[in-house]
Write a structure and sequence with these properties.
Lipocalin; 2 helices; 166 residues; globular
Length: 166
């Protein structure tokens, strides 16, 4: 089942298949779906990507990917590759970091006898705090992560809130 994880600055929506999450030691594998706002370089409208995260070393690699002609992985397959890519660091404040956190949280077992805290009371001040929090990740810098060695667009992390990527 696809679950929305985050949205990139260019409008690409990132989903994860919560049923596909597998954990082996410090490794987590998850299927991701990238639903593009505008067509990609191969005229793709979506990408399905099997990603492996190394939780011990904060890195990731693409194990396989496919580019599709329609949204949500539908339509003809325009390109596919099952060659594992190189490990790259999961840079902070990127869509890869958010997807990694969501997948890790979904796969982490809840401790026995742990109760969730009650929801915060609703008030005008909490609405103000929420708008402040949602803008906290805005980053107007044009810096790029030089440690990313991508062989295809499915591996390229996007800065969250970086308007220069449009």
């Amino acid at each position: 089942m696809w679950m929305r994880a985050t949205e990139g600055a260019d409008g690409t929506v990132f989903y994860i298949d919560r049923d596909s999450i597998k954990k082996e030691g410090s490794l987590i594998r998850v299927w991701e779906l990238q639903d593009l706002k505008s067509k990609g370089p191969l005229d793709e409208k979506s990408r399905r990507v099997l990603v492996e995260y190394d939780t011990k070393n904060d890195r990731r690699r693409v194990l396989s990917f496919s580019f599709h002609g329609e949204q949500m992985g539908a339509g003809i397959t325009l390109k596919a590759d099952q060659t594992p890519g190189k490990w790259t660091m999961v840079a902070p404040n990127t869509t890869a970091a958010v997807v990694f956190q969501v997948a890790s949280a979904l796969k982490a077992p809840l401790a026995k006898n742990s109760a969730l805290p009650p929801p915060p009371p609703q008030s005008q001040s909490s609405e103000l705090n929420q708008s402040h929090i949602s803008g906290a990740n805005d980053n107007n810098s044009n810096s790029k992560n030089d440690s990313v060695d991508s062989k295809n667009p499915a591996e390229e992390p996007q800065k969250i809130g970086d308007e220069s990527n449009n």
